[in-house]
Design a protein that fits this description.
By secondary structure, the protein is mainly alpha-helical. Helices cover about 65% and strands about 0% of the residues. It has helices at about 5-30, 30-55, 70-75, 85-100, 105-120, 135-150. Helix 2 (about 30-55) packs antiparallel against helix 4 (about 85-100), helix 4 (about 85-100) packs across helix 5 and helix 5 packs antiparallel against helix 6 (about 135-150).
């Protein structure tokens, strides 16, 4: 749990959790805003992960020390350590697709929400390295959007929306 001793991790943890709570409130009150926030979040993650995986792939090995589960630590320090660019490239591509899906509707939006939920829950065991519990809060926000606001493009008002 070395992340708890790093002041920068704590600051980023607070920020990520405040943002996650804002996204959850937005999912209930302003779903179009929430969808745009998820578009920005996953688009930014796609860009950062592509760039980092190509320029300094070993940075991802730092997450092993932050992981709560030995399974994650062993995976990161084992197989993943020799396949970082490929694995993170696939993850970044999926993050980009999730971002695009936030702007669309119907099955594409639903598929993107499900992919986003799976991703956010999958990184929970990274603990402070993933902003815990921010990713769980964001997954709940995506679930709200999936259940309630899947039948409209983000740029069109839903007849039951308040914005």
């Amino acid at each position: 749990m070395e992340g708890w001793y790093n002041q920068l991790y704590i600051i980023l943890l607070v920020i990520s959790n405040v943002v996650a709570l804002i996204m959850l409130v937005a999912a209930f009150r302003w779903p179009r805003v929430a969808r745009i926030m998820f578009f920005v979040l996953f688009g930014w993650a796609c860009w950062i992960n592509w760039r980092t995986s190509q320029q300094s792939p070993n940075d991802y090995l730092n997450y092993a020390g932050l992981a709560w589960m030995g399974l994650y630590r062993n995976f990161i320090n084992g197989w993943f350590a020799t396949h970082i660019q490929q694995v993170v490239g696939i993850i970044a591509t999926c993050q980009g697709l999730i971002a695009i899906s936030m702007l669309l509707k119907a099955w594409i939006f639903r598929f993107g929400c499900i992919g986003g939920i799976v991703f956010l829950l999958a990184i929970l065991p990274l603990g402070i390295g993933a902003g815990f519990p921010a990713t769980a809060i964001m997954a709940i926000a995506l679930l709200v959007l999936l259940k309630r606001y899947h039948d409209v493009f983000v740029w069109r008002r839903h007849q039951h929306q308040s914005i």
